[in-house]
From TrEMBL:
This is Metallo-beta-lactamase domain-containing protein. Gene3D superfamilies: Ribonuclease Z/Hydroxyacylglutathione hydrolase-like. Keywords: Hydrolase, Metal-binding, Zinc. Residues 12-168 form the Metallo-beta-lactamase domain.
Length: 187
């Protein structure tokens, strides 16, 4: 599996392209890199993780059902905070029915981590040394704490060299994140 990580200029959002066939959290214009139709996997529905949807030829869009409405409503996906109206009237497929997913509500109610081979794409739930914000509309500190407990247990049961690929910031491994992330250490 070939995974390319691209960081958007504006919001420093990580996009991952797998074998030029799957795009996780498209934050920018990738038309120079990808000309063919692709599947889109979304860790959640905030605007900075969906900006690139308009530039890609979409095969299918997979997202947790709790976040599908975020794609269609600029207030819910928070693009209104940057005075933009980013909305997509597209069919969403339930990501939990097609991929190995850990539902991690907190940052959004449909946030999830996606496991593909030796990678865990954690979106804005878990960063290398932090976690996603819980002060946005639709976020929940209580749900985030519960999700982190579930995620920590999950991490303890997968190979230590599994790569953690967050929505922002550097990638790391399971072994390192369990040691270095203060939120996981405190649980």
């Amino acid at each position: 599996m070939i995974v390319e990580k691209i960081v958007s200029d504006t919001f420093q959002t990580n996009t991952y392209i797998i074998n030029k066939k799957i795009v996780i959290d498209p934050a920018s214009d990738f038309t120079k890199l990808i000309k063919e139709p692709v599947d889109i996997l979304l860790t959640h529905g905030h605007f900075d993780h969906i900006l690139g949807l308009k530039f890609l030829k979409l095969e299918y869009v997979y997202i947790h059902p709790n976040d599908c409405e975020l794609l269609k409503d600029y207030k819910k996906n928070l693009s209104s905070l940057i005075n933009k109206k980013i909305e997509f009237d597209i069919e969403c497929k339930d990501i939990t029915k097609f991929f190995e997913v850990i539902h991690t509500p907190g940052h959004t109610m449909g946030s999830c981590a996606i496991k593909i081979e030796n990678y865990l794409f954690t979106g804005d739930t878990l960063f290398t040394d932090s976690i996603g914000r819980t002060d946005f509309p639709g976020s929940s500190e209580k749900h985030m704490f519960e999700s982190l407990k579930i995620l920590k247990d999950y991490l303890k049961n997968i190979p230590e060299d599994t790569i953690i690929a967050p929505g922002h910031g550097p990638m790391t491994s399971v072994e390192k994140i369990l040691i270095n992330n203060p939120y996981l250490r405190s649980i």
